[in-house]
């Protein structure tokens, strides 16, 4: 029986889309450089793992990005949350799950600035617990991060259901005993139907 619903953040609770963001702010050539050098770079992943700071990233990449963008990009690397608006429909959906008695948890690949900069995500006020990758120096889909979630909140994997927009993260969860749904489509009705089919009260 499913007793707990575990959510990813980017692509599920908030609109994390560096391509859309950068192409909306910079010209295409500049945006391509910034994606390659920072936002789709291993350094961004290392930031989520908690092994490098925004300042260190900008120091490493200072000569690789256009000088006129340095200040703006530094600000974005320090805090990308203003560029990731919440999916407002998720608040009522999660509120309903909570009212139906489900534990609500967050498992996200996110950097340490989450603790300071995520205050604008209203749905997070409904959560019973949060586990951020940077705090554990782990990343999905590594099995240890799922195991850390179960241990931290005394959860049984078979009683949890994971919602993430990346299939490999769902596969990682299933490998540890937690079923899930890949929310790559962004269609809440499809997600609801899957949850209902698994016996979850919506």
Task: Write the topology of this structure.
Elements: E1 4-7, H1 18-25, H2 28-39, H3 42-49, H4 54-61, H5 70-78, H6 89-99, E2 103-108, H7 114-117, E3 129-132, H8 133-136, H9 143-153, E4 160-164, H10 167-175, E5 179-182, H11 188-197
Parallel strand pairs: 1-2, 1-4, 2-3, 4-5
Sheet having the most strands? 5 strands, parallel
Rg, alpha carbons: 18 Å
Calculate the mean pLDDT score and round it: 98
Secondary-structure content class? alpha/beta
How many helices? The count is: 11
CATH architectural grouping of the largest domain: 3-Layer(aba) Sandwich
Low-confidence segments, given as residue ranges, are: none
Query: What is the name of the CATH class of the largest domain?
Result: Alpha Beta
Total count of strands: 5
Please write the string of helix (H) and strand (E) elements.
EHHHHHHEHEHHEHEH
What count of domains describes the coordinates?
A: 2
Beta strand %: 5-15%
Could you name the CATH topology of the largest domain?
Rossmann fold
Order of strands, widest sheet: 3-2-1-4-5
């Amino acid at each position: 029986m499913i007793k707990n619903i575990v959510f990813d953040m980017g692509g599920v609770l908030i609109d994390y889309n560096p391509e859309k963001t950068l192409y909306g702010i910079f010209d295409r050539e500049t945006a391509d450089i910034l994606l390659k050098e920072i936002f789709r770079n291993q350094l961004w992943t290392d930031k989520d793992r908690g092994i490098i700071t925004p300042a260190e990233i900008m120091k490493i990449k200072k000569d690789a990005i256009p000088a006129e963008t340095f200040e703006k990009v530094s600000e974005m690397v320090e805090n990308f949350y203003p560029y990731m608006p919440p999916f407002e429909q998720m608040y009522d959906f999660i509120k309903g799950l909570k009212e139906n008695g489900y534990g609500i948890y967050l498992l996200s690949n996110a950097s340490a600035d989450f603790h300071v900069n995520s205050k604008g995500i209203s749905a997070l006020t409904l959560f019973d617990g949060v586990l951020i990758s940077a705090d554990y120096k782990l990343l999905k889909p590594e099995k240890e991060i799922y195991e850390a979630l179960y241990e931290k909140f005394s959860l049984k994997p078979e009683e949890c259901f994971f919602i993430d927009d990346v299939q490999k993260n769902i596969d990682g969860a299933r490998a540890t005993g937690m079923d899930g749904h890949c929310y790559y489509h962004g269609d809440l009705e499809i997600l609801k139907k899957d949850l209902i089919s698994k016996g979850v009260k919506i």
